[in-house]
Please model this.
Amino acid sequence: MMEPFCALSTPVGVSGIAVIRASGEGVSEKVSKAVRILRTAGGRSGVPLSSLKGYESAYCRITDPKSGKTIDDVVITVYEAPHSYTGEDMIEISCHGGSAVRQEILRVLNDLGIRQAAPGEFTKTAFINGKMDLTEAEAVMNVISADSKRALDASNSQLMGQLRGKILQAEDILYKALSSIEMMLEFPEHDDTPENLEAVTDLIKSAEESYGSLARSFERGRLLTERMKVAIVGLPNSGKSTLLNFLAGYTRAIVTDIPGTTRDTLEFNTEVEGIPVTFIDTAGLRETEDEIEAMGVKLAGQAASEADLVLYLIAPDTTYEDVLGTISGLDPSKVCVLFSKSDKGDNPSREKIESILRKKGVRGFAALSVKEDRGTEYINEFVRDYYESAGGLNSGDITVLSARHASLLDSVTVKLFQALSIINEGLGVDVCSQVIRAALEDSGQITGRTVSEELTETIFARFCIGK
Amino acid sequence: MNIEEALKTEHSYLAGEYDVAVVGAGHAGCEAAHACAAMGLKTILFTLHLDSLANLPCNPSIGGTAKGQIVREVDALGGIMGKVADDCLIQMRMLNRTKGPAVHSPRAQMDRSKYSVTMKNLLEHTDNLDLRQGHVTALLAADEGNGVYKTEGVMTESKAVYKAKAVVICSGTYMESRTIRGEVIVESGPDGLPRSVGLSKSLEGYGIPLLRFKTGTPVRVNAGSVDFSSMQLQEGEHDVPLFSFENEMNGRTVPDKQTPCYSVWTSPQTREVIFENMDRSPLYSGVIKGTGPRYCPSIEDKFVKFEDKTRHQIFIEPMGENTSEMYLQGFSTSLPEDVQVKMVHSLPGLENAVIQRSAYAIEYDLIEPTTLKQTLQSKLVEGLFTAGQINGSSGYEEAAGQGLIAGINAGRYVKGEKEVIIDRSQGYIGVLVDDLVTKGTNEPYRMMTSRAEYRLFLRYDNADLRLTPIGREVGLISDERYEAFENKYKEIRAERERLESTFVGPTDALKTILEEAGSVLPPSGVSIADLIKRPNVTYDMLAPIDSGRPQLSRDIRKEVETDIKYDGYLKLEREKIDRFVKLEKKTIPEDTDYTKITGLRLEARQKLMNIKPLSLGQASRISGVSPADISVLLVYLEATKGGTDV
Model:
């Protein structure tokens, strides 16, 4: 059996659900590290994924073993060799259709040692394992070439081109570092040969930073393919629905003076300076005995935790204690505070609240009066500021497109880190060179450059070698 | 021309019948001829001039980075370069000592004329081998139809016809060569020797495409006219093993008395002289059309291409013990002779130097190496093998490595035995041959350690382990040597196991040793192997706390230490090699018609038809063949059950 590989098998694009397949020896055992079974088709729960028999399904929760973060609740079906499409052990994961979810799951699979499938690999494996008859060989070969052409087209897309450009720059730095090392090894007596590794170390560090920031942009890059979610949160009757209605330009939410009017969450899609945004109005955060309102409050908390940005509204009559009590459950790094209804006067403890929350790391503060149309421009500013810091718009950052790219970039970063520690430990430069080479091979899987050819070219271009 | 036609030409005569005829007695030809004879085949070796057999027409040294490893590999396979070099060295050094064991590279300065005489003597005393001075002008082969030819022999300028079942051509830089010094162009081989005329035309007649390359060599001066007082001295070293395992097993070491080398920097006048006369350089006036090597540019090239570098280093190397001739490494040029004099006199200490031979560029014919199989047999003429510069390489060691592979396979071909291929994970020789025949080259190809993917594994110290079993299988390793080889590796394994299972406590003695290496004492007992894994801790350093240590040779100690220190990285490299070998063992039938394989891209079809790779691994290294094409091929091979796992 081949080393395990995986791929999205439903079309790319937004869909209700998506299916990810993985094939190869012991694939369910490998995946089980990221899966908790909530309930199997037979009604069991808490058992490991590898205990499932062929054709058995289970409702599972997938988490990222690295961060412990939940990614999605999915249904996994297990197939046992040879009774599967490829003829090998296989699993099929039916997950939710958002691109972020799909990419995250693929990335987790990559981390678990299940690599991204090559074009046509499922079909090829099926053929080689005798799952198709001989006359289908031709069709299979055509599938492979068509798939690889599609992959090539995708990689030639504009966005991919930008990413490639960034990686090529980082690669060039690495080739420079590697050619200096090779010069030391290849032409030790040459006058061009660098005397120590100082310059090389700097180059590796700089490449490591570039690759690292590209790898990190994967997380932030979700925003570019999905709408940014902005939750409007606050105590009851702090003006949340008024704000949503203002943003929507029409009465989307029922506004009354009775606290607790909004019980469900209300969503509204719009664009803020070209950024696709979903604003979510929520129920006021308070303890309540009304069962329906209590559910609304719970939903509000959930919406806030799932949102990219939280607008936290504080009315003039809200006390300092109430603010601290309700804001504590939120991640301060994504909270912006709006002192609402400022036409009705300032909140007396505004200064105190600001200084405490600033220390907690809250992103920004502004006064707002929807009635007098004052301060609403701050909302645009908060949204744009967050979006840019996450890798969008004017930041000039490039976003990593697929989970495969992310895992390759991660692996480059790890290897460069290793290369630096080899230099620090004083181990041979030959080993250091091998590790950088391996990193460039990973990177080359994205850019298509072959190390042996590029390296020779770089040495000859940079150094004057003679006998 | 076939053999019958040759025998019908006027004044022709049948001069002999052989299993193998080797044309050219340079470093490739000598290895090829020796290997064939040692395999029991009746062999003849032709040379244009017997007094310049195994000539070192350029730098008087053997070894160096990557090249030193190749000499070791040639020796491990049962070749002769290492043995002869050991007999003729006048200085030995280990390059890259501080840079990690994978790139430790032995290099020796040679007594040039002694090298030639020693090699001639060795070959004259080799059974089954005849030496013959003669100018081979034609390859004789029978037309089998459909553009397929089969080797029958060779014919010389004097109309002597030699029958041979296999022919190995190692023509070096001699085919249709011309030397260039500025405006002066001479139809000559290197070192004023006769050139080879007609042979490349004869090869072309069989459909073999020809290329033309250029290389060059610097000035030689008389040491008596040189002032060495201000120069930097470079002495030989004594703690370097010899090249040949047979010398190692007999306890021989490098000579105590060694001859030094020197180095100087070019002066501002050197640069001035060159720029003033650049219009007379044949390279820039377009007289030289052959492609020159980038790694060995002439001194004028260096000044032009790297304008910000105002000076370059020149090494002055002795040409032998019984001569005053010195070689100026780094000072190769094709500028006219009168300019050369000014250039040499601009060097500090060489103001009054007497030039004994001038520098020149040389152009020569070679064949397109992608028409060869990995055995170095031609795909166009059965039974024809080529090795060395005729295949686009450069360097004595690269030639010797190919000569040995061509010789071994020519012998196996005559005997009807299975071919021998050294793959990229087994040796630099494998990397060299695979690069040439799979990718081709557009300049003289010099081996570099960075060309090897598995460099950590391809070390000079383990060449025997990698290749001696193959040399043994083909019949080039004696019983005595093989026994010594097996014992060496038994000792290495045993010592490694001992170090892994011997534990030492945190004593004061250990503390002193570790502190010296900048390391700290472990809190509890630890194996000696684990101590060796620490940075800056060596095997030898731990002797005081390792009482059970057996007496072992330096080579064995070094190899054990490297294997332990690099264990983790070597394991990773092993895994990579395992994956590589898998593809390498998936063979492709030679008669595969790639034009009929649906799903292959057009470019891939053309490239594959052209190279006709022997394995899926080789196919994957052809530029223009994508991973998807390889998948298609794999499916095709499965579908037709054409490919076999060997």
The longest helix of chain B spans residues 479-501. The two ends of chain B are 38 Å apart (CA to CA). The mean pLDDT of chain B is 92.
